[in-house]
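Researcher: Structure for this, please.
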Amino acid sequence: CTTVEDGGVQFQVRVLRRPPDAEQARAEKERPGARRNPFAEPEPALVVGDVSPTHLCLLNKFPVVPHHLLLVTRDYEEQESALTEADFAALAWCLAGVDGLAFYNAGEVAGASQRHKHLQLVPPLGPGRLRAPVEVLLSPPPAPGQVSRSAALGFAHALTGLRLQGASESESAMQLAAAYRALRTALGVGAEGTPDNLLATRDWMLVVPRARAAVHDINVNAMGFAGALLVRSQEQLAWVRNGGPFNLLSEVAASASP
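Model: Predicted structure, token format:
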């Protein structure tokens, strides 16, 4: 992990070293006609446990950071689908136990690598007590119910505050669902199948509309907008250093509707 400072944010840029079994999984995914679903029958060692009647918690087999969790729907749903009340009920339960960063990649254009619907949750990325490096630009967040945009972020987005600490799980789920609907409406991305990224903590939620999955062959998912990027080579790392992470993010984000 290398730190690249841009706009006051200490971006974490990790150079991916793909293990052999991941290469095999990638080849299977790209093989014509291959439709393997890794969440249909997860490996027992990866199962953390039940979250709700609709969701299961798994360990990510190829984690970006330690203790990288997946919240997977038991029944198959497309990853590009909008999040539902059931999704937010499961997420609220997990955020009550882990004060970390939750995120969702709505489809391949938003950086998703699997089609089976799943949210993700990671412990605080830092530095210090920050849940995400970009959080340094979001403090204090807007009041709950207030939608705003920050010029400091440099990419299209909508932001609102949350107050999940001390709330019941049902209250937290309702807050999360209401914030998600308000942000997507503000961005004009309310339709099913519209690619975007969701990032959420106990205190704020951010939604970013997407135009493309990658630029300069660097794939970006929701963690990129949190301040954590993955690259596959030293050459790509050099491009991020020279071009700047915020420039990369602005190129993959879509323009927000007025």
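Researcher: Any notable elements?
Model: The two ends are 37 Å apart (CA to CA). The mean pLDDT is 91.
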